[in-house]
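Complex 768.
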Amino acid sequence: MRRAWLLLGLAAAVRAQDAPTSAPEADYGRDVLPILAQHCLSCHGPRQPMGGLNLARFQDEKAAFAKKEVWKEIWRKVDTRQMPPADAESKPTDAEREKLVSWIERTLGSLDGKGAPDPGRVVIRRLNQLEYRNTVRDLVGVEPSVEDFPSDDVGYGFDNIGDVLTLPPLLLEKYVSTAQGVLDRAIVEDVGREPPTRRLEGKDFDGPPETQVKGAQRFLPAGKEIAAKFDVARAGRFLVRVKAGADTVMGAAVKLAVKVDGKEAAELEIKASRTRPAPIEVEIPLKDGVRSVALSWKAVATGGREPRADGKLVVVETVEVIGPVDAPTPKIPESHKRIFVAEPGEKKSPRDAAREVLAAFATRAFRRPASKEQVDRLAKIFESRQKEGETFEAAIRTALLAAMISPSFLFRIEPDRPGDDAKGARPVDEYELASRLSYFLWSSMPDDELFRLAGEGKLTAPATIEAQVRRMLKDPKASAFAESFSSQWLQIRRLEGVSRDKGKFPAFDDDLRLAMHREATMFFEHVMREELSLLTLLDADFTFANEKLARLYGIEGVRGPEMRKVELKDRRRGGVLTMAAVLTCNSNQTRTSPVLRGKWVLETLLGTPPPPPEPDVGEPPEHKDGRKLSMREAMELHRSKPKCMSCHVRMDPIGFGFENYDAIGRWRDADEVGPVDASAALPDGRRFDGPVEFKALMLERKDEFVRTLIEKMLTYALGRGVEFQDASTLRGVHRALEADGYRFSRLVVEIAKSYPFLHRRNKSAGGS
Ligand code: HEC
Ligand code: HEC
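Predicted structure with heme C bound:
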């Protein structure tokens, strides 16, 4: 048992280091040039090069190094078998293709041109809207509203890409006001620990000269008065506790009058002797504001006779005003307790307590132990606010606000270290890994367990990474990943802005739109949570629907607005290709768009997007010779020129296969013109008829699908575009998936253990 476990750990450790290794040296002149000459130069020679690409200029390795951007394209086109095109006369063998591709990866894709692995550059990146919301929620315990935040820019199809996440001034303002609002809700300013006590000694009172001071004590002769001012923050009933003693007058106890703003409010009978003062209490109401509280002799209980009090004394040692004692103690929310990990008390000064609170908060907010300087800065803010009279809690709140608008909070920073080799790469540290994992799978900050493991230096062990990824995927917070990744990968966020012709598609309303979106993300989340095969995404015998969506799909027996899992008996639904959200997003206001549907498949599922469109091609014609054309006929006619075909031959046939779905994804056997023809041929000659056969074709091409999905998820996980230095990672993850039945969790685990996920390139290191 133990042995097996050890072996597993070891295998994982080896795989985690599955970085590009140096290979038998391929030589540009000897190995690469001949392949280009034989299979490419006929179209990419110096005269009229196709696609504007002249490969004749790369006579040696140096020339190639100088144009890495171009080679990135060459790598992609050759590796995904887009080049040479299907109709080229001479095509490289698999071995030649492999040689060309691996030369590019090993030479251009390495840090030093000699095979040193390159984890790629991850720039400092701002938390995107979702990450900001979730991070604030987990940090403070209050969910902020980010609805009016400016929207995040998208790069490589995702909104968490460092290169494109800028910080517009409007957003900075939003950060300030949002943090303020959140902290106001999270923190109770006047915590009812004990009602506040204000304590004065006898000497602190004002009084005439006869009221002598002796030590802390005050002598109060008959007919005299001492008074002091008390600042009452909240009105209510207050306990006045006077520690006093008195001589008796003719055997009777002296009574003191307690006056508030000159008016008698209560009386106190002093039973203790002058030499042994003791506390006596009375409750009085006080209004808020500055109140004058005074003490004087009232009378002596001598049974009506005039008291002879000459020379007799009351000794006042201390006076405490405690309260309000009747105000309801404010309910302390969880968020408050979480922040105030220390409180000032008898053994702890406010300053020390504040430092503890600030250090704990900053460590969580900055996602790594806060430095002394960082805590100093916040403590200074706290101290200056307290000097200005703010309560402990209010002064802390101001310091926390500063933490929440600091770059260390708003940005994910993996700084270059002084010790880092300027030209190299280094493993990410424990805390960097905790954040990489948590933002990948939760779109939020690390939780206590991740912090703890990082603190103990245990997180970066491959077996721990795998265990943590599995734990994290089971956590409800992983829904953020399912939602965010799937809606961006499938490009269905656009659904929100989609409108449909009301006359033609009366069924399309906001409820249906929402149901479509939820279907796609719930389906993806189900595959994730149930550990299903990734191929389920291409074809499945279940989906999620409510009554409205089920009606669109022609499924009986689903009632009510809530989404639920439904069985599919018919292969015309099931999997992402035939989901209403996808079909609708890739249609127009009034009609379907085979072009967009085809483009979506190339981009999203096959990873071979077409080049950007020609400008001003015009709308496809609606009629010919007085007859209305089907969408397919119109498109076929419109782009029949060879110039148009070079691109459209790849997109349109795929789209024709989906003409049985109208512009909101409803099945139809006939369109406005006649029966739908959904048969088509791909550029490589393979034929299919309709969506069911196309899905079967896609399952045959599962390698391309899986590779594309790995690439998309790696992009999302790393927050940068995938490049040729990642090729061996893509392949390593692919192999691991094959061996594990394409199980969803395997994909996530392998990405989390991959070389680029666990390393970072130093700023000054080369590479693209
Ligand atoms: C039969 C002609 C032909 C052959 C042979 C050919 N290509 Fe192409 N190539 C094209 C055409 C046409 C385009 C532009 C349309 C497109 O991008 O699909 C193109 C575009 C490209 C592009 C994209 C250029 C850009 O920046 O948009 C790359 C890279 C490329 N080819 C590389 C190669 C390589 C490498 C080979 C040899 C292994 C090769 N091609 C062989 C016709 C050819
Ligand atoms: C370099 C590749 C390329 C070439 C060449 C090209 N197109 Fe396109 N075309 C595209 C792409 C990509 C789209 C999808 C645009 C989008 O994403 O909105 C498109 C979209 C269209 C559309 C819109 C489809 C719809 O459903 O609204 C029409 C019409 C069209 N192209 C016609 C033509 C015609 C006509 C030609 C030749 C004159 C041509 N195209 C040449 C790439 C190309």
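Residues 571 and 692 are 6 Å apart (CA to CA).
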